[in-house]
Amino acid sequence: MPTKILIVTGDAAESLEVLYPYQRLREEGYDVHIAALTRKTLRFVVHDFEPGFDTYTEKPGYTWPADLAFSEVDPGDYAALVIPGGRAPEYLRNDPELRKILKAFFDADKPVAQICHGPLLTAAIDSLRGRRVTAYPALEPDMQAAGAGFQDAEAVVDGTLVSSRAWPDHPAWMREFLKVLRSKAPVS
Question: Which residues form the DJ-1/PfpI domain (predicted)?
């Protein structure tokens, strides 16, 4: 039976930050499941950087089905966790079922990959204190408030936690996450 990886996300997640790791990890031979608040078709968004804008722009993105609801997740069934960014983490961090899932992964020291605004979820369960991370650069104050040492880099590895700034950093993010996975949760 293939090693399973969980992606936790929701509506308004960044399309590339969900689908790139989903496809890349499947390509490696992992069994990847997407969990959300409920089983439904999720509506992702596309964040882009355009001249003249002070921040990123947002457009409708792809749709994709959630395989299961947070309430159906048994964290013990999964070897690793991926936390995409976009706007989804802003509201998902308030969900008690998701917080239980996140806490279980950190308590078990399982590999976790987070990107962009995804660290808002791990900050909400106080799992960044004393760690080195990166995130979307505008979140530097949030990461510091969560007790993390912020680094503006493509990918930052702190034990089993691998973080990245945004989708342009995907190659470095997945390269580093796959190193952690191959040592801690190899494909079976």
Answer: 4-179
Contacts of 53 (CB under 8 A, 6+ apart): none
Give me the tens of pLDDT residue by residue for the chain, a chain 188 residues long: 789 999 999 999 999 999 999 999 999 999 999 999 999 999 999 999 899 999 989 999 999 999 999 999 999 999 999 999 999 999 999 999 999 999 999 999 999 999 999 999 999 999 999 999 999 999 999 999 999 999 999 999 999 999 999 999 999 999 999 999 999 999 98
User: Strand, coil or helix: what is 89?
Assistant: helix
CA separation for the pair 15, 119 (Å, rounded): 17
33 is catalytic: no
